[in-house]
Amino acid sequence: MYSLSQSVRMKGAAGEPLPSPFKGLTKLGAEFRRGELSVVAAAAGTGKSVLALNLAIRSNCPTLYFSADSTAATQLIRATAILTGHDVTDIKEKLHADNFIEYEAALTERWWQRFNYSARPTPTEIELHLRCYEEVFGVYPHLVVIDNITNVDAGAADSAESYTFGLEGLSDYLSEMARETHAHVMAMHHVIGEYSDGLKPIPQSGVKGKISRVPSLILTIHKEIDGMDGRTLHISPVKNREGFEDSSGETYASYTFNTRNIRLEDLEPSHTF
User: Fold this and answer.
1) What topology is assigned to 33-221 in CATH?
2) What is the spatial distance between Cα 197 and Cα 133, in angstroms, rounded to a whole number?
3) What is the pLDDT along the chain (273 residues), one digit of tens a residue?
4) What Pfam families does the annotation carry (predicted)?
5) Which ranges in 119-270 belong to alpha helices (H)?
6) How many Å separate Cα 236 from the centre of its chain?
């Protein structure tokens, strides 16, 4: 056991926020702190993976991204667009034409950002890759993304009760992993049917399954579409142990989603209703 003064030396990197491109969330006190678990919940296709990839690429921190929900080609195209600002359509054409040489230098510089594309990773596989990362680079990643948490094969879930227990148990496992490695672990998740269109604020109670107990931070995302391919994402901190929270989801930071280069940019000001 440790005294409070000894705890100062024991904390290590735990609690340090990752560099974040999301100023609106930072103003609301929603930060991605090392040693903690966060959950990002939204309807399918709303922008969960876009948020995670923007954080990974633009924070420029050591990252291990488990991309069970998206293929290598999809993530490569998106990441290249975020990194370079180039149009995803042009990047996709060059990738399929095996004419990707102009991007090699920029991508090679991000050697500390690694991806796993297993469709059903197990906790054992996740742990193995974490240990491999530490063995190769001498440090654990500062950011670990699990995209999506329901894609993780944590064992049989043959009933609603065992499914919920599995999610809670998996959340406990990921939280412990964050504490032990001092990584920020971000897990993508789904919402209940009432919010499946992604067009209205999602409260904490709208997160699917009993998963809210463990994470230090829970963000929900809903979208606004202007009818001309313009899109705004509203990100709500519905649980936040370290700062502001509004469990109703009605307080959020807003971001323009540039579908050309996949970047999220702050739209001032943040909103409260």
Assistant:
1) Rossmann fold (3.40.50)
2) 38
3) 665 565 555 555 668 999 999 999 999 999 999 999 999 999 999 999 999 999 999 999 999 999 999 999 999 999 999 999 999 999 999 999 999 999 999 999 999 999 999 999 999 999 999 999 999 999 999 999 999 999 999 876 555 555 555 888 999 999 999 999 999 999 999 999 999 999 999 999 999 987 999 999 999 999 998 766 679 999 999 999 999 999 999 999 999 999 999 999 999 755 554
4) AAA_25 (PF13481)
5) 123-137, 160-181
6) 14
